[in-house]
C-alpha cells in the first residue's frame, strides 16, 4: 500500500531524489527543500523545452491550463511489483544532488550518478544537480554532454530560479518520453502482468483469454500515461475503452483500476472544483471500484498475494475525498470498514500504512481519541520490530497520542501560561481547566499509554523521554500503582538520569508535589508604607504593605480582599513558605529547590530536603531582590532524581481542587497527613529601591516592663539603621490602647540625630506610667485567694505601641533633597517609607489599693501679729526670711489670714498595700501663679509636701490633702450657671442656680483643680509613681463642692496700721510685730479692717466690727468694757469695688492684757442672683449677711 494516497495520486509523476557523493544530510535536506517547491509545473512554462518529433498522441493536451505534477521521493524507493498495474508507482525520473566542494572530481560524480540511476529501470529522465562548483569545476570539459548540471554559486533566489528552469526541462523531457511510450504501446505487443496473474504454464484457453485482456490492460495503461502527461480528456477516453474491454473479459482487477483512473481524470478535468453532483458521482464510481477489487479475490492466491490492500486503499482514497465534518458519518463508516479489513492483511507494512491513514483521517475529522487509538495500533506494530529505529518511530507516534489521552508532556503544550500567572480573578480555578487536565475515568488507559512511551523510549535509547514518561506516570497515577511498581518507576528515573548529562532540564516534573503555603508576615520592624508627597504627614491614612487581611493601623479603610499586594526591597532577604509532599512508598531526596523567578530580578537560594515515604514538609525558601519592578514567582525549580524541573503552584492548586471535586484520584497532601487545603493567592509582588531600615532594641531586654499601678519609669530604646541608605525623615507617634501611659517621648533626640547614616545608632528616652487595673483584674486576684499578691494583667493587646515613620528623602532623579521642600506637582511616585512598630510591653501589677476617701473640716486660728510680721517683711523684700520662718503646719495648710482660712477642709485618703513590697507615700500640691499681685497665696507658686508615709505589706495608711488653697479667686455668675438671665423671674433663677445645676457646671473646674494634687509613692530605689486618685477626690467633693471650690463674696482681714511718725516708729512697730508681743496694753493701737470683694460687681455693705474676750463676751460695751476704741465700729456704710479691697481704720486701747478676738461682719444691700445663689437664699427680700473669721489678738502687759 502507498502512504498518503489520494484519488489525485494517479496523476503524480514519481521522481527519485538521491544524494550523490559525500553530501551531508543537512545540505541534502536544504537542496531538496528548494526542489520540492516545484512539485507542479504548468504545461505553458515548458513549451520552450518541448519539441514535437511526431504527432502527439495527446490530442487534447491542455497547454494553457494543464500541468504536470511531481511526487519527489527523497532517497528513492525500491521498485513495486504493481508498476504495470498503476504507472504512477514507477520511478519515471531520477535527480541526483551533489555538493561540489565535497566532491572535487566531477567525472567521478557523473559515474556514480549513472550507476545509481541504473537501479531505477523504469526511469525515463536522469539529471544530476551539482551545486556550488568552484571555478576549476566550471571549466571542466570532461563532464560536458553528461547528465551533470552545474549550479554556479549565487544567492538563494538565483539558485531557485535556476532550479525551476531545470525542473521545467525535466518536465518537458518526461512529456516527450510519455509520447514515445504511448506510441509504442499502441503499436507493440507489450505484456502487462500483476502478482495476481498465475505464474503456472498457461493452457491454450488461458492464453487466448490473456490476449483478450491485454488490449483492455493496454488501454488502461495508456490512460495512466495520459494522466501523468496532464491530459485528462485523453485519459478518460482510454479508460472508457479499457472499462468495456475488461468488463467483457471479466478482468475485474484491471476494471477497478481503470475506474479509479477515470475518477482521477474527472477530478483533473474539473480543476479541483467540487459540487454535490460530482461527489455523488465519485462515491458511486468508487463503490464500484471497491466492489470489483473484492470480486477479483482469488482463493488460490490468498496465501501469496491479495487485492485486499487495493480495496482498502480505494476505501481510504474515497474517505479522504469525503473527509469533512458534514460527511463525518460516511467517512467514519468507510474508516471502520477499512479497520476491519486491515486485520486480514498479510503484509505488516500494509497494515501499518492502513492504521496510519485511518489515524490521520480521524484526526482531520476532529475525532482525536479515535485517531489516538489507531496511532497506538501503529506504535504496537513498530514495537513488534526489535530495532532502535522502529522504537524511535513508536515513541514519536505515541507522543502524538498524548494530547488526546491528556498525558502530554508540558513541552508539547508550548509556553506555559503559569509563568505569567495573575490572580485578577481572585485565584479562581475554572472547572473546565480541571476536567481538561485530569480525567480519572481514563486512568487505566492513560497509564498504559505512558508505559508504552516509557518502553519505547528505553528501546530507542532516549533517556530524557524515558525520564519524562516515568515522571508523568508516577506523579499522576501513584495511587493506582503498587509499591513495587512505584519502586520500579523510581529505578527507571534513576537509570535514565545516569545516562543524562549533569544539569539536564525536563519540562515534566516528577516528585515531590510543591504548593504555595504562605508568605511570612512582615516583621514589625520592616513595615513599608506608601508615601504621599503632597502631604507633610506622608504616612497618614496608609496601611502597611504585606499579606495582611487586617491591621490595627488601617484606620477603618475598606479592605479589598481581591487586591493582594506585597512589597519587597532591593537587597533585603525575603522568604516564601512552600509545602512539599511525597505520597509514594520510597524516600525522595531533593538535591536542591529554590524559587522560580521568571522576571529575573531576584536571586533565589537553593536548599536541600529529604522527604520520607508518605510524608509532607513545610520549608522556607528565601532570596534577595536585585532590581526594581514586578516579581513573577509561578513556582519552584527542583533538582530531584538527577534532573532539573520546574513545578508550578497553579498546577498543584488545580490538582487539589480537582481532588475535592472528585475529578482527580487523590490529594497528595491529604494522603500524607497534611493540613486541609487552603487556597493561597499569589500576590502582586513589587520590588522597590533600597530603603533605610531601623532596628530597635530596648535597654535591659525586649521583654515586658513590670510596673506597679501608677509607677513611672524611663525606658531607653536604641534605634540603629541597618539599611544601606540614611534615614532623613522620622516622626514618632503612638497607637494602640492606654496611650496615656506614655508620659513623654524624646522625639527631639531622634530629630537631632538625622540624617541617621547606615550603621549609626541613637538612643531615645520614653517615660512610662502604669495605668490602673480594672475592677475585673482586681476581683480575679481576690477570687484566687491572693489578696496580698500582685495581679498580672490578663488582657492581651492592652499595651501602647510606639510608631516611628521614617524615610529617605530622594527626588525622582535621585538627588538627596528634602521631599517636603519641593512642590507636590514636581514630585512623582517617591520611594515608599517605612514604619517601625515598637510594642511597649507593660505588665501592670497591682500596687497600692485605694480603700475610701472622706472630707474632714478643722479650724486653725490666725493671729494679727503674725500677719503683721509676714506682711511687713514682704513689703521690705525679706522673702527668704519669711520662707525660712514658716512652720511645718504653714507649709502644709498655707494659712492666709487676709482671706480667712478658718474653714479649712482636708481630704483623707485611706490606702491599702496588698503587695509584697513596702511603699512610701507623699502628698504634693502644685499651685499656679495668678495675676493678682496683692494676694499672698496667689503670688507664691511652689510645691508643698508633707512627710512621707510608710505603708508596709498588708497594712493601711491615711494621707491628708488640704483643699483650702483650691478656692477660685473670683465668684462669677458664669461659673454658677450658663443659664443665668439678668431679667429672669424668680422661679427661673431658682431653677438655674439649684445645687444640682451648679455641680454640673463646675465639673470641668473641679477636674482642673484636682489634677494639681499629686499623691506620689516610692518603693525601693528605682520604683516610684503616682496614685490615680482623681475619681476618688471628685466623688468625695461632690457633696460639698460649693463650699470647697467657691470663695466667699466678701473676705475680711485685720492688720496693724502703719504709724505716721516716721521711719523710727515703723521700725519699732515692725520689731514689735516680729518679736511675738505684737500689741501692748495701755497703748493706743491703730488697726485696719480689710474688706475684699471677690465678685465682678460692686457691693454696697453695712460693716460692723466687734471685739470679744476669751469668754466670748463683747468687751467694748457695757460697764465692764476692757477695750476702748477710737473711730467708727458699727453702721459703717461703704461700697466695695469689684475685685478690690477697702480699708477702714480705727484704734483700740486695751486695758487688760490677754487674748482677744476681732470679728468683722457686713450686711449686703441689693444682693444680686450670684450672691443669693452662693448664700443658698431663695427669698428676694431676705437680707444676706457675710461674717468674717475670728482673728486672735495677744495683748502684752509690758514691753
* SS class: alpha+beta
How many H/I helices?
A: 34
Low-confidence stretches: 416-440, 546-561, 784-795, 811-827, 866-901, 929-945, 977-989, 1061-1077
Binned strand content: 15-25%
Q: Could you describe the largest sheet, including whether it forms a barrel?
A: 9 strands, antiparallel
Helix content: 25-40%
Would you mind describing this structure in some detail?
This protein is an alpha+beta fold and 1199 residues long. It is 33% helix and 25% strand. The protein is built from 34 helices and 47 strands. Strands 20, 22, 24, 25, 32, 33, 34, 36 and 37 form a 9-stranded antiparallel sheet that branches. Strands 30, 39, 41, 43, 45, 46 and 47 form a 7-stranded mixed sheet that branches. A 6-stranded mixed sheet has the order 2-3-1-4-5-6, sandwiched between helices. α5 runs parallel beside α7 (252-269), α8 runs antiparallel to α9 and α13 runs antiparallel to α16 (443-460). It is rod-shaped, with a radius of gyration of 59 Å. It starts with 11 loop residues before the first strand and ends with a strand. 37% of the residues are buried. Mean pLDDT is 79; it is low at 416-440, 546-561, 784-795, 811-827, 866-901, 929-945, 977-989 and 1061-1077.
Amino acid at each position: 500500500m502507498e502512504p498518503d494516497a489520494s484519488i489525485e495520486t494517479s496523476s503524480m509523476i514519481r521522481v527519485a531524489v538521491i544524494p550523490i557523493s559525500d553530501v551531508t544530510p543537512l545540505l541534502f535536506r536544504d537542496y531538496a527543500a528548494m526542489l520540492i517547491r516545484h512539485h507542479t509545473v504548468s504545461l505553458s512554462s515548458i513549451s520552450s523545452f518541448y519539441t514535437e518529433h511526431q504527432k502527439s498522441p495527446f490530442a487534447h493536451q491542455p497547454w494553457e491550463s494543464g500541468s504536470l505534477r511531481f511526487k519527489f521521493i527523497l532517497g528513492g524507493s525500491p521498485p513495486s511489483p504493481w508498476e504495470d498495474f498503476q504507472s504512477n508507482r514507477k520511478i519515471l525520473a531520477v535527480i541526483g544532488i551533489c555538493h561540489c566542494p565535497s566532491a572535487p572530481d566531477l567525472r567521478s560524480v557523473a559515474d556514480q550518478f549513472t550507476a545509481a540511476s541504473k537501479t531505477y529501470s523504469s526511469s525515463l529522465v536522469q539529471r544530476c544537480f551539482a551545486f556550488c562548483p568552484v571555478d576549476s569545476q566550471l571549466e571542466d570539459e570532461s563532464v560536458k554532454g553528461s547528465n551533470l548540471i552545474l549550479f554556479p554559486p549565487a544567492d538563494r533566489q538565483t539558485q531557485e530560479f535556476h532550479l525551476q528552469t531545470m525542473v521545467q526541462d525535466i518536465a518537458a523531457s518526461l512529456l516527450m518520453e510519455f509520447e514515445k511510450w504511448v506510441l509504442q504501446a499502441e503499436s507493440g505487443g507489450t505484456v502487462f502482468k500483476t502478482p495476481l496473474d498465475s505464474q503456472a504454464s498457461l493452457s491454450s484457453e488461458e492464453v487466448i483469454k490473456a490476449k483478450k485482456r491485454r488490449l483492455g490492460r493496454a488501454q488502461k495503461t495508456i490512460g495512466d500515461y495520459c494522466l501523468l502527461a496532464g491530459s485528462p480528456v485523453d485519459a478518460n477516453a482510454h479508460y472508457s475503452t479499457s472499462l468495456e474491454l475488461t468488463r467483457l473479459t471479466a478482468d475485474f482487477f484491471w476494471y477497478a483500476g481503470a475506474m479509479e483512473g477515470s475518477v482521477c481524470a474527472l477530478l483533473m478535468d474539473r480543476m479541483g472544483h467540487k459540487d454535490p453532483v460530482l461527489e455523488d458521482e465519485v462515491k458511486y464510481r468508487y463503490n464500484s471500484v471497491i466492489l470489483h477489487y473484492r470480486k477479483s479475490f482469488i482463493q488460490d492466491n490468498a496465501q501469496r498475494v491479495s487485492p485486499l490492500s487495493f480495496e482498502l486503499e480505494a476505501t481510504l482514497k474515497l474517505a479522504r475525498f469525503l473527509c469533512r465534518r458534514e460527511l463525518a458519518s460516511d467517512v467514519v463508516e468507510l474508516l471502520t470498514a477499512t479497520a476491519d479489513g486491515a486485520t486480514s492483511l498479510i503484509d505488516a507494512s500494509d497494515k501499518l500504512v492502513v492504521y496510519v491513514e485511518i489515524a490521520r483521517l480521524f484526526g482531520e475529522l476532529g475525532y482525536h481519541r479515535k485517531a489516538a487509538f489507531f496511532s497506538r495500533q501503529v506504535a504496537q506494530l513498530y514495537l513488534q520490530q526489535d530495532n532502535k529505529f522502529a522504537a524511535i518511530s513508536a515513541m514519536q507516534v505515541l507522543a502524538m497520542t498524548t494530547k488526546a489521552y491528556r498525558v502530554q508532556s508540558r513541552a508539547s503544550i508550548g509556553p506555559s501560561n503559569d509563568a505569567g500567572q495573575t490572580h485578577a480573578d481572585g485565584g479562581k480555578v475554572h472547572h473546565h481547566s480541571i476536567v481538561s487536565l485530569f480525567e480519572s475515568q481514563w486512568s487505566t488507559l492513560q497509564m498504559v499509554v505512558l508505559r508504552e512511551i516509557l518502553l519505547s523510549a528505553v528501546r530507542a535509547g532516549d533517556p530524557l523521554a524515558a525520564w519524562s514518561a516515568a515522571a508523568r506516570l508516577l506523579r499522576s497515577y501513584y495511587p493506582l500503582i503498587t509499591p513495587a511498581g512505584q519502586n520500579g518507576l523510581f529505578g527507571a528515573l534513576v537509570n535514565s538520569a545516569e545516562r543524562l548529562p549533569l544539569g539536564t532540564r525536563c519540562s515534566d516534573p516528577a516528585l515531590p508535589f510543591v504548593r504555595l503555603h504562605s508568605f511570612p508576615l512582615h516583621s514589625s520592624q520592616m513595615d513599608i508604607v506608601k508615601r504621599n508627597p503632597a502631604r507633610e504627614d506622608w504616612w497618614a491614612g496608609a496601611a502597611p504593605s504585606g499579606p495582611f487581611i487586617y491591621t490595627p493601623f488601617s484606620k477603618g479603610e475598606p479592605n479589598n480582599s481581591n487586591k493582594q499586594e506585597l512589597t519587597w526591597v532591593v537587597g533585603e532577604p525575603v522568604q516564601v513558605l512552600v509545602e512539599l509532599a511525597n505520597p509514594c512508598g520510597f524516600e525522595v531526596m531533593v538535591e536542591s529547590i529554590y524559587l522560580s523567578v521568571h522576571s529575573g530580578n531576584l536571586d533565589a537560594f537553593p536548599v536541600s530536603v529529604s522527604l520520607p515515604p508518605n510524608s509532607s514538609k513545610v520549608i522556607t525558601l528565601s532570596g534577595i531582590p536585585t532590581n526594581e519592578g514586578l516579581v513573577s514567582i509561578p513556582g519552584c525549580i527542583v533538582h530531584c532524581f538527577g534532573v532539573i524541573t520546574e513545578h508550578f503552584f497553579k498546577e498543584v492548586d488545580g490538582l487539589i481542587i480537582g481532588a475535592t471535586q472528585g475529578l482527580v484520584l487523590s490529594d497528595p497532601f491529604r494522603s500524607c497527613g497534611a493540613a486541609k487545603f487552603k487556597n493561597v493567592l499569589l500576590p502582586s509582588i513589587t520590588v522597590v529601591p533600597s530603603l533605610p531600615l531601623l532596628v530597635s532594641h530596648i535597654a535591659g531586654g525586649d521583654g515586658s516592663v513590670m510596673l506597679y499601678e501608677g509607677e513611672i519609669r524611663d525606658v531607653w530604646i536604641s534605634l540603629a539603621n541597618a539599611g544601606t541608605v540614611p534615614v532623613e525623615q522620622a516622626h514618632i507617634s503612638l497607637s494602640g490602647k492606654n496611650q496615656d501611659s506614655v508620659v513623654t517621648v524624646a522625639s527631639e533626640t531622634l530629630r537631632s540625630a538625622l540624617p541617621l547614616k547606615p550603621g549609626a545608632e541613637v538612643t531615645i528616652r520614653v517615660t512610662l506610667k502604669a495605668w490602673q487595673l480594672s475592677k475585673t483584674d482586681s476581683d480575679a486576684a481576690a477570687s484566687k485567694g491572693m489578696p496580698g499578691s500582685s495581679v498580672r494583667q490578663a488582657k492581651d493587646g492592652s499595651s501602647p505601641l510606639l510608631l516611628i515613620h521614617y524615610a529617605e528623602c530622594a527626588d525622582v532623579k535621585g538627588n538627596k533633597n528634602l521631599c517636603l521642600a519641593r512642590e507636590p506637582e514636581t514630585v512623582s511616585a517617591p520611594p515608599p517609607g517605612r514604619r517601625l512598630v515598637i510594642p511597649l510591653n507593660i505588665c501592670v501589677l497591682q500596687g497600692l489599693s485605694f480603700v475610701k476617701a472622706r472630707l474632714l473640716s478643722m479650724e486653725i486660728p490666725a493671729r494679727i501679729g503674725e500677719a503683721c510680721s509676714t506682711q511687713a517683711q514682704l513689703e521690705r523684700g525679706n522673702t527668704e526670711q519669711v520662707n525660712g520662718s514658716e512652720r511645718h503646719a504653714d507649709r502644709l495648710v498655707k494659712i492666709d489670714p487676709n482671706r480667712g482660712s478658718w474653714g479649712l477642709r482636708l481630704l483623707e485618703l485611706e490606702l491599702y498595700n496588698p503587695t509584697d513590697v513596702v511603699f512610701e507615700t507623699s502628698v504634693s500640691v502644685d499651685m499656679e501663679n495668678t495675676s493678682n499681685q496683692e494676694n499672698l497665696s496667689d503670688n507664691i507658686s511652689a510645691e508643698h509636701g508633707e512627710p512621707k508615709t510608710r505603708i508596709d505589706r498588708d497594712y493601711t495608711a491615711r494621707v491628708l490633702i488640704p483643699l483650702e488653697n483650691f478656692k477660685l479667686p473670683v465668684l462669677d455668675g458664669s461659673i454658677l450657671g450658663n443659664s443665668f438671665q439678668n431679667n429672669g423671674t424668680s422661679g427661673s433663677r431658682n431653677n438655674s442656680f439649684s445645687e444640682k445645676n451648679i455641680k454640673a457646671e463646675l465639673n470641668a473646674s473641679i477636674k482642673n483643680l484636682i489634677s494639681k494634687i499629686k499623691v506620689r509613692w516610692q518603693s525601693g530605689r528605682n520604683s516610684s509613681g503616682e496614685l490615680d486618685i482623681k475619681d476618688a477626690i471628685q466623688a468625695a467633693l461632690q457633696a460639698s463642692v460649693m463650699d470647697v471650690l467657691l470663695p466667699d463674696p466678701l473676705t475680711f482681714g485685720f492688720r496693724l496700721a502703719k504709724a505716721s511718725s516716721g521711719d523710727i516708729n515703723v521700725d519699732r512697730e515692725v520689731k514689735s510685730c516680729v518679736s511675738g508681743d505684737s500689741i501692748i496694753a495701755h497703748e493706743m493701737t491703730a488697726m485696719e479692717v480689710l474688706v475684699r470683694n471677690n465678685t465682678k460687681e460692686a457691693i454696697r455693705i453695712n460693716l460692723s466690727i466687734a471685739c470679744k474676750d476669751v469668754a466670748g463676751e463683747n468687751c467694748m460695751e457695757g460697764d465692764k468694757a476692757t477695750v476702748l476704741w477710737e473711730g467708727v465700729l458699727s453702721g459703717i456704710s461703704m461700697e466695695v469695688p469689684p475685685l478690690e479691697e477697702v480699708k477702714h481704720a480705727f484704734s483700740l486701747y486695751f486695758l487688760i492684757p490677754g487674748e482677744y478676738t476681732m470679728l468683722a461682719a457686713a450686711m449686703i444691700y441689693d444682693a444680686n442672683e450670684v450672691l443669693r445663689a452662693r448664700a443658698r437664699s431663695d427669698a428676694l427680700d431676705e437680707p444676706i449677711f457675710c461674717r468674717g473669721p475670728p482673728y486672735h489678738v495677744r495683748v502684752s502687759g509690758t514691753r
